[in-house]
Structure prediction request, 158 residues.
Amino acid sequence: LAIPEEVKSAIRQGLLVTLSTPEIKARQVTSQVISNIALVEVPAGKWPNLLPWLLNNITNDQAPATLKQSALDTIGYICEEIAPEILSIYANQILTAVVHGMRPEEQNPLVKRSACIALYNAMSFCKNNFYNKEERDVLMNVILQATINNNEDVRVAA
Prediction:
């Protein structure tokens, strides 16, 4: 697009800030907008800090649950649509972040649900991780734990 880089940068920053807003509808739309921009810009190397930023906020225990959930939703949308080879270098980091969102210590059911959905959407490029017994065991453990979660939405997503 013929948009000046400083304008693109301001738009990206505004979108990332919106991911932590208390307004759930704004977060949901922003996750979708970011993922659609990422489909164009990540393969072209134009938004190199997006995935590291999202992954860091998912695994940061100090990040608000709203931001974790939105970051997981965004990762899930990106994983659902982007070519697997584009994200293959992030496969381990994405799985680590998703597992972090699904672990028993995570008390927020919206974060857990979003992590389950993100894991499902990431399967196409993370399938090699299932060939490693230790990684497969960790993944299956968090999935099975999610299937017996007290929250029905988490169980359904798992």
